[in-house]
Automatic annotation (TrEMBL):
Protein name (Swiss-Prot/TrEMBL): Surface antigen
Highest classification ranks of the organism: Eukaryota, Sar, Alveolata, Apicomplexa, Aconoidasida
Swiss-Prot/TrEMBL keywords: Membrane, Transmembrane, Transmembrane helix
Organism: Plasmodium falciparum UGT5.1
Parts of the chain that traverse the membrane: 74-95
InterPro entries, per the entry: VSA_Rifin (IPR006373)
Amino acid sequence: MTYVNIIKEVEITKCVDQVDKTPLFCHFVSPSRESALSQRVSGIAENAADMAEFAEEGVLEEGASVTSSLTTGITASIIAIVVIILIMIIIYLILRYLRKKKMKKKLEYIKLLKE
């Protein structure tokens, strides 16, 4: 409010001291408009405070939703990676078993041929 008061004082002194009064400038600082201006400024200040609180709440809610969606995505990707790793391990074990089985058969044939 100090800025508003300083501006009002400057405007009032300019209209009083100046011989050739500028009509628009001096009309604006008339006492009837001064009270309307102060009411308007205080209303704007209150609305700005309310809007700031509203915006802060919205940002916090939006931030929470973004964080939760990122967490969901990260969780899904981790689960997918774990499933892929498990499938690869299972395939490796199956191939290893089949190779051992095949090698045993070859060893049996080699033993039979040597005899």
